[in-house]
Amino acid sequence: MSSSSHGFPPRKLPASQSGLRAGANSQDGQKYILVTGSNKGIGRAICQKLLEEHDDVSVFLCSRDVQRGQDAVKDIEKQVAKGKGRLTMIPLDTGSDESVQEAVGIVKQYTDSLYGIVNNAGVLLRGKVQESNNVNYFGPRRVNDAFLSMIPKGGRIVNIASASGPIFVSGCPDPALCQKLSQPWTIQGGLDELDEIASEPTHCRNGDSYGFSKALVSAYTWLLAKDHPDLVINAVTPGYINTDMTQGMGASNPPSKGAVPPVWLLMSQDLESVPTGRYYGSDCKRSPLDCYRGPGDPVYEGPDGK
Q1: How far apart are CA 97 and CA 171, in angstroms?
Q2: Which residues, at least 6 apart from 66, have a Cβ–Cβ distance to it below 8 Å?
Q3: Low-confidence residues of the chain, pLDDT below 50?
Q4: Which DSSP symbol is given to 89?
Q5: Sequence-ordered strand ranges (E) for the chain
Q6: Domain residue spans in the chain?
Q7: Which stretches does the entry tag as region Disordered (predicted)?
Q8: Which residues have a Cβ under 8 Å from the Cβ of 216 and sit 6 or more positions away?
Q9: 46 vs 90, 149, 175, 223, CA distance in Å?
Q10: Span 244-287, pLDDT tens digits
């Protein structure tokens, strides 16, 4: 499989030529954005929305399944004619260290600079805490750690969380864990301590492995933003969207609706003037980490931590 079978042609630019602005390639002025888990569902809708609405954006559509990823590229290009040449597929399994490192090498054939990352890949595994956390929590950790050096000042990271995270925290029977996940600034050991929490299945006492993993993602977002104050890093729930993951569970909103808040976090200038490390609801409003806030409910105005 050739990495350039679809999308913009590979090129390797010297570091000195990268970045007229955050993640922009100085030769073509494009902002390069990487979206994981994007051969279908919300991830695919994010790729399509970016190409439809932002002519200065080129997208890396990441897929664990190569054929499905290539098919997604073809389908999107049919629907968004102006997107042709701005979309390419990257093989990427966020649950594998080796796959993530291989993806870095492929991306660097196209550009030395990323404007942003959307960590969308996820799984819904009931009761399988370690397997769930490997993809939903450690997946974004792997991707961000691998690609962070390619994101210049002002670049953005969007971690796809879920309302299941705050719901997990609100029902968590462990007060100490509840405090850490709802107030990440109290995690004295930083990311190392959060990794330890994620690696211990007994922390998920109520069996909600998905909610646990997404609560970890939101806490991780705050810690990552603290470590990288020059970047715009936030988490968001796309809402209750009808995808393969939620099939038969009553979700009715289309993936196109779920793409709205992540793309807003990626592209809105409003985010340049407010603290980062926040968690946003599907209505693009700030939300708490310890209880559910529905679309249209009062905006959360609590502390941003220390």
Answers
A1: 32
A2: 1, 89, 91
A3: 1-5, 12-20
A4: E
A5: 31-35, 57-63, 87-91, 116-119, 156-160, 232-236, 279-280
A6: 15-280
A7: 1-24
A8: 133, 136, 137, 165, 181, 194, 197, 198
A9: 15, 23, 36, 25
A10: 665 566 656 787 899 999 999 999 999 999 999 999 999 999 99
